[in-house]
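Ticket #4471: structure output looks truncated?

Reporter: J.K.
Steps to reproduce: submitted the chain below (97 residues) through the standard prediction queue, then opened the result file.
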Amino acid sequence: MQHVAEIHQREFYQGDGVKAYELLTQTCKETFSEKEYVALSDFNQATPRELVSVTARVDGSRGFVDTVWAAPQEPDNNMPWVLEDGEWRNDDCRLRQ
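Returned output as attached by the reporter:
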C-alpha cells in the first residue's frame, strides 16, 4: 500500500491528475468526476511540494497513510485507503486537508 500511496501523492501533487484519479476507490470516483479531480490536482500543483516521506499503516483491508512534505506544507495524516478488488485504492473522498 505504501508504494501505491506514494505514487498517488506524487501524481496528484507533482504529476498527472488522471493517473492519481485511477487510484481512487469507486466511491470516490462517484464523488468526483475525472475532470473535477484533475482540476483539483492542477490547482494543487500550482504550489510546488517536495515529498519527504510516505508511511502506511495496514489493518486488514483498510489502511491509513501519513505524508510528510518539505516546509512550508503541513503533513497530511490519516488518509484512508481500502483494498478494493485486490488493489489498494485511495478512499479520501472528502479531501480532508
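Triage note (M.O.): checked the attachment and the full C-alpha cell line is present. The first helix runs from residue 2 to 14.
Status: closed, working as intended.
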